[in-house]
Amino acid sequence: MRAGVKAFIMTKNHIRDIIQWDVKSWSVALNYWEKVVDWPNAQNALELGGREGGLSLWLAGHGVKTICSDLSEVEKKAFPLHRKYGVDQYITYQDIDATNIPYENHFDIIVFKSILGGIGRGNSHEKQKKSFQQIYKALKPGGKLLFAENLVASPVHQHLRKRYIKWAGYWRYVTLEEMKEFFQEFSDYELKQTGVMAAFGRSESQRNLLAGVDQLILNKFSPAHWKYIGYGIAIK
Q: What is the CATH classification number for the domain harbouring 20?
């Protein structure tokens, strides 16, 4: 058994540093991924849009050799977190554009969280679609894409983003229909949704409180297209 596969138990601090913001809502995706990955057979992985490297921390905690990538300076941003948890020996760093991944049939796992809006800046659906084509190319046959992404969500979400979020003018949120389109090449996928009110919290404590309301009530009764997080798995 590879070192780290059974030993890694996520504490609240782990989860906070892996997810980084709106933790209670987005960690739903993390809990789902934990169950669908065949950890003993996951040898190598790629995190796209890594920023501070939270998802690389998670993968490396399971003993998976991981490339933590972003467009630039990812090692400078992410290495301190990985060193903090003592997993840096499992991680290397590369500058990688998700629309031009320099690997083919290589990875057991590719993972990303909230990157499609930036890829699609300037309303580029084609760049978003191309990123999925590149991910498909870079995965081994049977390899898994683990994804969590900001969705268009309800008209209220759309209105408040335009009014209060500074990057909303260029960020291209995706619809559920577009997500399904992006998975056309894959042999199978599962797309789930979560989160309604938590996005409206002005602080992390407010978001966590509202996420509790979402998980107890609103996720069960709200239409899928009102929810602002889409997550799941796609298999090559």
A: 3.40.50.150
pTM over 0.85: yes
Which pair of tokens denotes residue 221? 């009764």
- pLDDT by position in tens, the chain (length 236): 454 444 567 889 999 999 999 999 999 999 999 999 999 999 999 999 999 999 999 999 999 999 999 999 999 999 999 999 999 999 999 999 999 999 999 999 999 999 999 999 989 999 999 999 999 999 999 999 999 999 999 999 999 998 888 777 789 999 999 999 999 999 999 999 999 999 999 999 999 999 999 999 999 999 999 999 999 999 99
Residue at 202 is within a domain: no
Do β-strands 91-95 and 229-235 pair in parallel, antiparallel, or remain unpaired?
unpaired
Q: How many domains does one find in the chain?
A: 1
CA atoms of 228 and 204, how far apart (whole Å): 17
* 8 Å CB contact between 119 and 127: yes
